[in-house]
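Collaborator request, handled under Task 6.
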Amino acid sequence: MKILRHNNFKKRYERLNKFLKEKVNSSIEKFYKNPRDPTLMNHALRGRMIGKRAISVTGDVRIIFEEYDNYILVMMLDVGTHNQVYG
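Structure tokens returned to the collaborator:
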């Protein structure tokens, strides 16, 4: 699996505090090892975000991404609170 980070993801990531950055890094590492790990709650999005997926970092923090060719390539699009990424 190759994971790329969109500029929007990078900008939002840089604004996170140290604790959340560590949680995001841990979630991405877990995702890399097994994108279907149940603790990530990987799920397809609907509505205006159809075609995208999300994983949970904490109770309120999500990573939005697109996957291609059955997780051969993943583009991390956004990271932030539920309201930030879905709002």
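The cover message to the collaborator said: "The longest helix spans residues 18-33. The mean pLDDT is 95. Please let us know whether this matches your experimental observations."
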